[in-house]
């Protein structure tokens, strides 16, 4: 009888699989696979001072990838519902601090203090528009602005400028994106390996891309071709996840 070598965390019921603990890479706009979201990607890429974009979509739609990728460089800030409300409040009220872009993710989960701070940030954004102190505002959540479980005046502000719904990538788009990533690294994924990844892993393309990169490095280090047993060995050899206290 053949023993299943798949580690417990790689069983189908463990949807996050190992991707939470694989080494991450900094998201980039060039690495974002748009699918039906090309207009949203272009708006985020071209987002300039005095403009705002709100993105909404489910888990794996790529909204966090876009926010993190865009909020890089001088004067750019990325925050989410886990960030201290005081930090968001400081960005909203400290007019001596020059801002280029502020990205606020997971707005549906903001506590009352953070909601008040984001409301103040929107007011600063509107007041500064058209002045040398103008900055861009990029926000995201899991649902449309007016259905957010937030204070009413904040819900309306989320829809002040551009709003995009992010569509999930089709299975065909995901498969092609992984093939393209592998090809960029000089790899060829077998149908067996690709099918296993697409059916056992979550839909977040940033983390799937990280898996391909890690698989390439692991293959080189072990001097073994990329096969399903090698992929399972990679998952088994990965270190345990680091949990925040």
TrEMBL record:
<feature type="domain" description="Hda lid">
    <location>
        <begin position="171"/>
        <end position="235"/>
    </location>
</feature>
<protein>
    <submittedName>
        <fullName>DnaA regulatory inactivator Hda</fullName>
    </submittedName>
</protein>
<dbReference type="InterPro" id="IPR055199">
    <property type="entry name" value="Hda_lid"/>
</dbReference>
<dbReference type="InterPro" id="IPR027417">
    <property type="entry name" value="P-loop_NTPase"/>
</dbReference>
<dbReference type="InterPro" id="IPR017788">
    <property type="entry name" value="Hda"/>
</dbReference>
<dbReference type="Pfam" id="PF22688">
    <property type="entry name" value="Hda_lid"/>
</dbReference>
